[in-house]
Amino acid sequence: MQGIDTTPYQEFAKEKLGFLFNDINLLVTALTHRSYVNEHKATVHEHNERLEFLGDAVLELVSSDFLFRNYSYPEGVMTALRAALVRTESIGDAGYELGYEPLVRLSRGEKHGSDRAHDVIMADCFEAVIGAIYLDQGYETAKDFIDKHILVKIDQILEEGSWRDPKSYIQELAQKFDGVTPTYKTIKEEGPDHDKTFTVGLYVGNTLKGTGTGHSKQEAQTEAAREGVKLYHKEHKEIDL
To answer: pLDDT tens digits for 42-55?
Structure first.
């Protein structure tokens, strides 16, 4: 790949992934955002979206196979569990944990984007890296990568019940253990109209059970509900799947 020192990418692969790429340009492309290509059209011609498409398919296959072989839940539950494993937050967090953020190539404008935008970019890059590993090293290596960084989260997902729709689940838990329907109250609104951040509290009776923030009240409510679910699971160990 013209004009770029690929040494940091190969060092990252060796240290974090456990192997050297045969074609290191695949990893470079996997960590190249469309905005960077638009800003460097004369020298860079390929971004990571095709690799992301491929990696998404490999991720879905590996996670589906894992769930099928290890659990006997109904199809609807298995689908929800898979969605929880591969949701943007989960795979984005895995990217941050791996530490490939400094290697992601973004335009100057995109570098100053919101945290939410960066989280989505990290998730997309994670899928693109899977695609790059699959092409360069084969299915088994890609599968091992997914096992190590994504599928290990299944126990936590099951324990916290985070595979369920949080708002529906918290209502079920609140009615079961406290006999009331939870309510949501907006605690504060911050920021300009085009980029507001809402903080919402989840209340069961008069007790605050969780808070959440988001760029819409719906998003903040969902995060508050998710926190409430975690609290109920902590308080009531007998909760079943």
So the answer is: 888 899 999 999 99
Its CATH class, for the domain covering 166-235, is: alpha beta
Q: What is the pLDDT of residues 10-41, one digit of tens each?
A: 999 999 999 999 999 999 999 999 999 999 98
User: Does the domain at residues 7-158 carry the CATH identifier 1.10.1520.10?
Assistant: yes
Structure tokens at 197: 């951040």
Q: Which letter does DSSP use for residue 219 in this model? A: H
Q: How far is Cα of residue 40 from the mean position of the Cα atoms in its chain?
A: 28
- β-bridge partners, 21: none
Instruction: Scan for tokens 């920021």, then name that residue.
Output: 191
pLDDT digits (tens, 9 = 90+) for 183-214: 999 999 998 887 889 999 999 999 999 999 98
Catalytic annotation, residues: 56, 127
Please state the domain extents for the chain.
Answer: 7-158, 166-235
133 phi, psi to nearest 5 deg: -65, -45
The phi, psi pair for 97, rounded to 5°, reads: -65, -35
* 11 contact partners, CB below 8 Å, separation of at least 6: none
Q: Name residue 230's amino acid.
A: K
CA 180 – CA 41 distance, rounded (Å) = 59
Who's near 143: CB < 8 A, 6+ residues apart?
62
Per residue, the 3-state secondary structure of 148-185, as one string, reads: HHCHHHHHHHHHHCCCCCHHHHHHHHHHHHCCCCCEEE
